[in-house]
Amino acid sequence: MKSLLNKIDGMLKEKKFSQVKNILSQENPADICALFEELFGDDFDERAEFIILFRLLPKDLAAEVFAHMKSDMHKHLISMFTDKELREILDESFIDDTVDVIEEMPANVVARILKNSTTAERKAINQILNYPKDSAGSIMTIEYVSLHKDMTVSEAFEKIRKVGVNKETIYTCYVTENRKLIGVVTVKDLFMADEDDKISDIMETHIISVDTHEDKEIVGHMFGKYDFLSLPVVDREKRLVGIVTFDDAMDVIQEENTEDVEKLAAITPNEESYFKTGVFGHAKHRIVWLLVLMVSATLTQIIITKYENALQAVPTLLAFLPMIMDTGGNSGAQSSTLIIRGMALNEIHFFDFFRVVFKEFRISILVSAILAVVNGVRIYLMYDQNILLAATISLSIVFTIIVSKLIGAMLPMLAKKVHLDPAIMATPLITTLVDSCSILIYFNIAVAILHI
Q1: φ and ψ at 94, to 5 degrees?
Q2: Which domains, ranges and CATH numbers included, belong to the chain?
Q3: pLDDT of residue 125
């Protein structure tokens, strides 16, 4: 990529446009898009070579590169396009890609896109835009190959050759009758069959489909479960209205994973990238949870204040407090992370609640026993063979880890049950709750053993 980048940059400076066009026409659209980003960075709107380089691309390749670009590049290019150029890009683009662009554009740009779209395209775009944002309908495309059950294999191939060039995928074809989905047939099935075979004889009638209002996250997981290349989307009457393709499903999974990671870090999800979000934008997305966690930590402060006399009687107890709290927080975070991920992958469900709790309990017994022994021996040797202090710390670790792992396992599952995002019960929130429990456990054991 680096050598190609330098080569293209040099040719642009020398105005060797025909050579640049020949080189780019052989490249992958995603790689060309990456080359644009490397070559122009965030200054693309100030570099005349940006639009020149884009205009060198063949029409079909330009549309594919355009689909891979970021929204700010879309906006700049559309502002530079003539109506003729915009129509050419729209004609070569798939409907779902056009919808993705429209969703990120201001009203004046959207109006220009719709103005340069055909009546059929506008109807399809509006149909998709009317579906809820997080639904299967919002990410589907209406560009698929539809066959009739009475067609022969030969007739099916003839139709695929005729309409396939304008469809997003031809590897899976859908058999419909009065718009209702009745079967699925792959190109492999067609190749393996005789030319005179009927589609009805070779099609698969056990169809896995999704409703237009199905959550797009569930759609993404279905691709992982069934290894689909595309998934049919039907309405309530089982009429085929579109398909979700593999590339769109991967975008959904990436988007959902990013959102979960942000929630795990107690950050309000943000659709913009890190550098495109301003300082105040980042602060706004982070401050709410920081305030909630800071206020909730007041409980920890109250508990420590309550046991102030114990700390004065045995000041050494204060030295071990961070270790007890950190161990509890880390233990709870381990459990919550695994449970949240397990639920995201549909490996763990609410009916597994007691099974999960029992398993985490057994894990906590094993882990806490090892940590308690190690710390007990260490404290006994380092603190003048003080067996009572060693016993206090060791028992505190055992009970803290048990409670922490149970909290870390239960809270995400309970959140899911009451229709909250399990990621909300993530590391920061669980750590704050576990800190309070750890301090209570620690001081109660210390008071009981050390008689303070």
Answers
A1: -80, 150
A2: 2-130 (1.25.60.10), 146-254 (3.10.580.10), 297-450 (1.10.357.20)
A3: 84
